[in-house]
Design brief:
heterodimer, A: 11 helices, B: about 170 residues, alpha+beta, 5 strands, about 35% helix
Chain lengths: ~270, ~170
């Protein structure tokens, strides 16, 4: 056994899940478990209780006109294979289909990815790029106010994500350079243009986690072509520098991937 | 310790597990189903892939308690003892798609899910992408890809109900 033991509950209602979380010190929520279970094995996390969200029926994709809602427990595989989402938000389904591998996508969830907010999380880039709203059991948080640095979010203790909501963008695309082993983003860029304006969200690159590259956004909002951002560079300050890629290379990739996103955007 | 009810390879079972028991350990240590292998224990290699409620997943990154009430299929349950092999197993044999065989159960379980999810058929590139969660250290990928491509049409014609075959 590599993990410390813990209590395990699988409540049937959101209220029950929240009260278990609030009344048990060091309790953690279990969604798809694809980041949490590896963390438990390495004892990066050692919760007293896991509250499994599998029975809360939060796995629905709802589309009402141009408004799209994804339940927090929607898997990456369900998002990637949704025909409606493929035609409405091709950048989102492409992003979901590039996460991990088929088995990880069959388990991993929207809400789990957002709550964990790893600095190389693909979902964080998509949600920030789409200007989505994160809906918890008691409030709505704009993506611009949700991500607070690597592994940190605006979620308060005892707060549970129930889903995300966003408007269909006019255009969306995602490009990433994958770590050849983990398939995580060495750099990932999500570009969207719509009601929320022109947005460029970058993951995998910065030590501070996902961020918006506003210089690229400004140039693209005037002229949505790869040529419009040809001369723009990103500073390598704060970029991750590791065995996979240097800080300078990551900074360079942001421009490359943004141009690829724009060039490849159909709608 | 908690008790869970699971259906493994079409057999109902009630088993006692620790909350921290991994699904792969329950299968191998308690139920004696040693077909799912532990290669890396870090959800990279795919040797432990089984199906839970029809979807392939890594049994080293799933808690047994999460599977309470679930239907689980392992490589041992893919075909009935004494009966014909599953088309994917047949094609792995026909193409000699294994060398040491350690990755084979996981490869086959992943491949079956991949083909089920894609009845429209897959290109060679798509099969390669679909296998990204399974590693073969003997580097036998070419014959594995050939086996999966050969099994795809067999799986869809054999699993199609007879009534549907008549209304093409």
């Amino acid at each position: 056994m590599t993990m410390r033991d813990f209590d395990y509950r699988r409540p049937a209602t959101i209220n029950e899940a929240v009260s278990l979380l609030v009344s048990n010190r060091d309790a953690m929520l279990l969604a798809g478990g694809q980041s949490l279970i590896p963390d438990l094995k390495q004892r990066i996390s050692a919760p007293s209780m896991l509250v499994d969200l599998a029975r809360l029926q939060l796995d629905k994709i709802k589309i009402d006109g141009r408004t799209i809602c994804l339940g927090a427990m929607t898997t990456h595989a369900a998002v990637a294979s949704s025909k409606d989402l493929q035609s409405m938000v091709p950048g989102l389904t492409k992003m979901a289909g590039l996460i991990g591998d088929l088995q990880v996508r069959n388990c991993g969830t929207v809400g789990g990815s957002l709550a964990y907010n790893a600095p190389d999380s693909c979902y964080s880039a998509a949600v920030l790029g789409l200007g989505a709203t994160i809906i918890t059991h008691r409030r709505r948080i704009a993506a611009d106010n949700f991500f607070k640095g690597a592994f940190a979010t605006a979620l308060e203790p005892g707060e549970l994500i129930v889903g995300i909501e966003f408007s269909q963008p006019g255009k969306s695309n995602y490009e990433k350079i994958r770590n050849s082993s983990s398939r995580a983003a060495i750099v990932g860029v999500f570009v969207a243009q719509g009601e929320a304006g022109t947005r460029v969200a970058v993951t995998g690159a910065s030590r501070k986690g996902v961020f918006r590259q506003t210089a690229l956004e400004d140039a693209l909002s005037e002229n949505f072509t790869p040529a419009a951002i040809a001369g723009l560079t990103t500073s390598s300050e704060n970029m991750i520098n590791d065995i996979h890629a240097s800080a300078e290379f990551r900074a360079h990739l942001i421009g490359v991937l943004t141009r690829r996103c724009v060039a490849g955007t159909v709608r | 310790m908690p008790q869970i009810r699971i259906r493994v390879n079409a057999r109902e079972q009630t088993v006692t597990v620790e909350n921290r028991t991994l699904l792969v350990d329950l299968l191998r240590e308690t139920l004696g189903l040693t077909g799912a292998h532990v290669g890396c224990d870090t959800s990279q290699c795919g040797a432990c892939v089984v199906h839970v409620n029809g979807h392939s997943l890594k049994a080293c990154t799933t808690l047994a308690v999460q599977c309470d009430g679930a239907e689980i299929t392992t490589i041992e349950g893919l075909s009935k003892p004494g009966a014909a092999l599953h088309p994917m197993q047949e094609m792995f044999l026909a193409q000699n798609a294994m060398q040491c065989g350690f990755c084979t159960p996981g490869m086959i379980m992943s491949a079956v899910d991949l083909i089920r999810q894609n009845p429209q058929g897959l290109s060679e590139d798509e099969i390669r992408e679909g296998l990204e969660g399974n590693l073969c250290r003997c580097t036998g990928y070419l014959s594995i890809i050939k086996a999966i491509a050969a099994a795809a049409p067999l799986m869809h014609s054999r699993t199609m109900p007879a009534a549907m075959k008549n209304c093409k």
